[in-house]
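Customer escalation, tier 2.

The customer says the design service returned an amino acid string that "doesn't look like it belongs to this structure." They asked us to rerun it and document both sides in this ticket. The original structure tokens are below, unchanged.
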């Protein structure tokens, strides 16, 4: 049994803090640096970039960031495992090798491919893969722009076992960067489901970097130093338990609640599906063991599903937006007049577009102290497969009304032509169709999927609630006593709501039913909502199907990734027991 492996995150998205690698390397000991560069939207962005520039298929910022610290990486024997390869892991590896050679360094670099299915599309269709859209049930009738299977961590494990210093992948699950590294370090096998589940939980916690150390945290005002939060690390033991922390002297904080917040981020049911294991988040125990150190233990794992998720995209058409500032008095009437005038000027009816979103953003302050406080915005967004409908014929409608419309009208941006976009297409593929190819120098390894082994189903004992009510209530924002974390899951959104103690959870679980959530958020009225309790985390997770349409790449919502959904819910006034607020 080896000591715990310390795996430090250096990136939560393509464009994260460039200095994170150096901060993690110089702040204290680490064994592995991992970085997540890929979101569903990022793959589409890389595809568009690659059309303009052959080397645009990977995260070029990773190459420059790593080049600045490669001497430290090699001198300290630190492994680097990232999914920065995007659509071109081999090209990314070549760029890193070139940067290393310029410094007189010769790291062993592995490139992992096998996730990109575009070149295999016809072959796979002939083999019986329908690529049915998991949200709509439709089979594709347009060519895929991108199509990438979510690979697991075993290619990473084999690359590290083969002596690689740097491992560059394409589309793997975010947590696989950590689970694959932990499996290498502790020499786990594919059926160590409990251990793997623990490492998947750890990977999920640190994958988004600063979100584990106070970023996007509901109770951020309680943290002393968020000006420049530090990046997190996970210290994973052989049994799969983990300590989440950050280097001494760095900003932010690692608390039970920052960790629980991140565990709730972009998840569905408590059975967290992955290509290597189904991690049961309803078995996790999260305990603060000392300042900036949180232990996560008790993970249980079940067999992974027979299919792998595939994130694909198809051409979505074109879209455009008109945004007009409204100042001062009579804003509802101003919005109504803008609606009438601009739709009169647009040479099409609302029904002629594939998608329309009209909204008022913000609200003016009574007796404003500044001009800005007197402003809200009327916004109209449209999408269509017909470029002409959403081009200048649409945006020019705002110009045609400018002198005969509301007082104080001003545009936020000049009229533009139509902008092309892609539409997210979530689908799946039989895991037996996937082979990970690991290229280490001149050596080529093939990592094939194995048949999942199903054991006895895990049964989590229910915890009786003891909340009896009484003692009076106060009308306060829900966020007075609960925190939230929300995000997008394709066309759906997840909303995690957590209490601050067991007593608060007993009240929350009884209060926040699906019907109550619909009362708080009337816009959910026609949408399917799933509700899951995670009593061990004092939390409830909702999955709201269809809130994002077909996904972030095509959504016309003001908040297309549902990042603000949780804080919106926290702002709602509800009757809260006085005993919970201490009043």
């Amino acid at each position: 049994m080896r000591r715990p492996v310390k795996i430090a995150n250096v990136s939560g998205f393509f464009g994260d803090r460039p200095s994170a690698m150096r901060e993690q390397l110089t702040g204290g000991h680490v064994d592995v640096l991992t970085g997540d560069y890929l979101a569903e939207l990022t793959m589409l962005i890389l595809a568009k970039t690659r059309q303009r520039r052959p080397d645009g298929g990977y995260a070029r910022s990773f190459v420059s960031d790593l080049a600045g610290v490669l001497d430290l990486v090699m001198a300290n024997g630190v492994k680097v495992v990232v999914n920065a390869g995007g659509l071109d892991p081999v090209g990314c590896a070549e760029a890193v090798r070139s940067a290393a050679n310029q410094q007189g360094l010769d790291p062993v670099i592995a490139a992992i491919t096998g996730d990109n299915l575009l070149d295999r599309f016809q072959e796979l269709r002939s083999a019986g893969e329908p690529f049915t859209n998991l949200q709509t049930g439709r089979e594709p009738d347009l060519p895929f722009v991108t199509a990438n299977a979510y690979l697991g961590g075993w290619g990473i494990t084999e690359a590290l076992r083969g002596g690689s210093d740097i491992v560059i992948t394409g589309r793997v699950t975010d947590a696989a960067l950590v689970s694959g590294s932990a499996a290498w370090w502790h020499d786990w096998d594919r059926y160590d489901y409990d251990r793997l589940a623990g490492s998947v939980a750890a990977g999920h916690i640190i994958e988004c970097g600063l979100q584990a150390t106070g970023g996007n945290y509901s109770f951020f005002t309680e943290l002393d130093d968020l000006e420049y939060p530090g990046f997190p690390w996970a210290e994973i033991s052989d049994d799969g338990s983990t300590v989440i922390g950050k280097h001494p002297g760095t900003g932010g904080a690692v608390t039970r609640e920052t960790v629980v917040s991140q565990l709730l981020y972009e998840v569905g049911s408590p059975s967290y599906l992955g290509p290597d294991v189904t991690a049961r988040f309803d078995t996790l125990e999260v305990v603060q063991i000392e300042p900036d150190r949180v232990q996560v233990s008790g993970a249980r794992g079940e067999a992974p599903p027979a299919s792998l998720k595939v994130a694909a995209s198809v051409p979505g058409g074109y879209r455009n937006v008109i945004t007009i500032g409204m100042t001062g008095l009579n804003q509802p009437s101003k919005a109504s007049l803008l609606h009438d005038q601009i739709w009169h000027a647009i040479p099409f009816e609302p029904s002629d577009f594939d998608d329309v979103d009209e909204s008022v953003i913000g609200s003016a302050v009574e007796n404003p102290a500044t001009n800005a406080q007197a402003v809200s915005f009327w916004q109209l967004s449209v999408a269509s497969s017909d470029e002409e409908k959403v081009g200048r014929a649409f945006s020019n409608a705002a110009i045609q009304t400018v002198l005969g419309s509301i007082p104080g009208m001003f545009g936020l941006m000049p009229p533009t032509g139509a902008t092309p976009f892609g539409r997210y297409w979530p689908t799946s593929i039989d895991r037996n169709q996937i082979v990970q190819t690991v290229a280490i120098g001149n050596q080529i390894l093939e990592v094939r999927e194995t048949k999942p082994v199903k054991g006895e189903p895990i049964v989590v004992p229910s915890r009786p609630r003891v909340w009896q009510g009484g003692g009076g209530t106060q009308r306060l924002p829900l966020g007075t006593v609960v925190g939230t974390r929300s995000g997008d899951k394709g066309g759906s959104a997840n909303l995690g709501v957590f209490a601050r103690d067991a007593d608060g959870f007993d009240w929350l679980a009884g209060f926040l039913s699906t019907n109550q959530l619909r009362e708080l958020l009337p816009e959910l009225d026609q949408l399917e909502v799933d509700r899951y309790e995670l009593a061990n985390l004092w939390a409830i997770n909702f999955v709201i199907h269809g809130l994002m349409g077909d996904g972030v790449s095509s959504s016309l919502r003001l908040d297309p990734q549902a990042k603000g959904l949780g804080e919106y819910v926290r702002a709602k006034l509800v009757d809260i027991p006085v005993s919970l607020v201490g009043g």
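Tier 2 assessment: The sequence is consistent with the input. Residues 331-345 form the longest helix (15 residues). Residues 314-417 form a domain with the Alpha-Beta Plaits fold (CATH 3.30.70). Sent an explanation to the customer and offered a walkthrough call.
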